User: Fold this.
Amino acid sequence: MGTGRGERAMTPEQREAIYENAQYLRQVRPIDPEEIDEYVPGRPHPAVVREVLRGLASDLGLLEREDGTFVPVPEGTLDSSSFGLSVGSVETFPESHSRRLEDRLVARYGPGWPEGESGDRLRARIRELKAAYFAGESVAYDAETVLAYAIYHLPDYYAATTYLLEELAADGLLPTHLRALDVGAGVGGPALALFDRLPDDALCEYHAIEPSPAADLSEQLLADAGRNKYPKIHRERAEDFEPVGASAATDTSTEAADGAYDLLVFANVLSELDDPVGVVERYLEGLAPDGTVLLLAPADRETAIGLRAVERALASREDATIYAPTVELWPGERPADRCWSFDVKPDLGVPGFQRRLDSAATGPDHTPGEFLNVDVQYAYSILRTDGKQKIDFEPDERRVAKLADSDAHVSERIDATAIKLSRSLSEETEGANPLFLIGDGSQGVDHYAVLTRETVLNRDLQDAEYGSLLAFENVLVLWNDDEEAYNLVVDDETIVDRLSG
Assistant:
């Protein structure tokens, strides 16, 4: 016969007692559920006390250790080494996540899911998703569409988010006690990327907003998030969710946390919102004073340019600043170019589930590789409300020209400073000169740096990373009628120096 300890539902008085004891002990020594148990009315089982402490962890700032005790989370921020992207690139989609996704496919269709009718339906759904996307049409997500979407998109979204989170960590923008809100979370790519990279001495409270059946798959993929990672999925529309106070404590009658988020994520969702600017503006009310907003979109022309339009509308507010990559270098200036800007990372290894689905395809309409999606290309914007910018640099107008004034310098050589906003856009054209989108935040139309003759003194244009600040000396300005853009011609008379990145 049992003792009865912990068999009843936890009462408010018991929760309050656990909270008060934990609040006191956190400043004295590691909190042991076995010890707290002795001071709680009715002496609930230590395992029940442990579950309550997990529910209070974010409110109290507590880490659960391997031995089952709880200690305060260290103050400070994550850095790139603790964040864990030591190899410099995301080589594959983790096998553990692949197995969990395939478990869902097997549970629904059986072990032969890539074959026969089930495989045909999944491939048809992927084709429909791609067609709707390129046509700018919305998609209704049922359970089967969600699985098709995950097969095709989860790996590259996971990789893109990993790269961006690593950048935030390297810049000290992710606190060790992190509250994140993922708006339009889909099947969970950003959450998986974040949880995979968090070190053991970090605490993360993660809220996901996802009204579609994608929330079911996300919940299953995040089921074993691990210690000190607390995901919560809100099955609401982004327009209906109330961001202010959503992360406040609810497990005790004590004063709630402020509910402010350190990280707001809008990944691959802006193009699906009727009023993306208005939605993001409302969510800024729930951002911590030193928090970060991450906007992410696919690299194709319409969605990438659409993301930049949202970014610029937000940056026109007095309290929002573009942190990266399209830093506005000239105070008081605003860009008006198209700015189809995106980063490109190394391809992923082909996930087994994509290879199996593609290999099982038959019929004259199938092209081998049609269902493989290993490109990692994405547009992004990082915004802050504290005025911080990744590149803290203001050009001297007595020494360099604004790109806004390029019309006055056509056929002249000038000095300029600008951000590199693309990889080479002519790599696939044989014999073409390397071509890079650039901007200084003042340009009214697109500007490209064209490398016509590489030298040791201008090699930084080719070698600099996406988002780097470059100084151009003696660069020739020309107008390109075909592209309706300016070309800054970098030849053997031009010097290019990398100032950052």
Summary: The mean pLDDT is 91. The first strand starts at residue 62 and ends at 64. Residues 43 and 133 are 57 Å apart (CA to CA).
